[in-house]
Design goal:
The chain is an alpha/beta fold. The chain contains 9 helices and 8 strands. It holds the Pfam family DeoC.
């Protein structure tokens, strides 16, 4: 079993409900600091925020549908970084993957990559909505465009969230060259450990406290 402290340092402690208030974000930051998570992940409208030293700030762009123009995602990412984000989780245009337009997919990821040089870029491929072949191709496009991570899910898609199968496929595709973030529907310590065993190097969690308590 992975240690509690090690798992905490893999967690993006997440609050992306659209009704979340600045007070909710302050509570999230306090909880993240207490739990020792790697980062918080919040909506870009909540930036900028102040966090304790050692706690990183992640945000999302094109969230949750991904169905906006690449230049809008790039502008949103650049603004988020200007507002203090260190990591950006972008949602792909899922239709590009479903239509096997992987050159277009790579181009939109590249547009965001170019907009935030030196910052961490995670690419949300919404794996539950894709076939295995589409997961592999989307992961390859992410790597070719210079992403730092591929990520399973927004947690908002009706097809579902992370699966160990998708995480394993993504890890096999990107090897040790990129990180793999499992996110969406991970609510127990057992589920978190299953994702880590499948190859996840980062976890997007809102139930971080309960999951870490289950590792003690």
């Amino acid at each position: 079993m992975t240690s509690r402290a090690d798992v905490a340092q893999m967690i993006d402690h997440t609050l992306l409900k659209p009704e979340s208030t600045p007070e909710d974000v302050k509570a999230l930051i306090a909880e993240a600091a207490e739990l020792g998570t790697y980062s918080i992940c919040i909506s870009p409208s909540q930036l900028p925020v102040e966090v304790p030293e050692g706690l990183h700030i992640a945000t999302v762009v094109g969230f949750p549908s991904g169905a906006v123009k690449a230049e809008i995602k790039a502008a949103e990412a650049a603004r988020a970084v200007a507002d203090g984000a260190e990591e950006v989780d972008m949602v792909i245009n899922i239709a590009f993957a479903k239509e096997h337009r992987f050159d277009d997919l790579q181009a939109e990821i590249q547009a965001v990559r170019d907009a935030i040089p030196g910052k961490v870029l995670k690419v949300i491929i919404e794996s539950a909505a894709l076939t295995d072949e589409e997961i592999i191709a989307a992961s390859k496009a992410s790597e070719a465009a210079g992403a730092d991570f591929v990520k399973t899910s927004t947690g908002f898609h009706p097809a579902g969230g992370a699966s160990a199968h998708a995480v394993k496929l993504m890890r096999e595709t990107v090897g040790d060259r990129l990180g793999v973030k499992a996110s969406g529907g991970i609510r127990t310590a057992e589920a978190a450990e299953e994702m880590i065993a499948a190859g996840a190097s980062r976890l997007g969690l809102s139930a971080s406290a309960a999951i870490l308590a289950g590792l003690e």
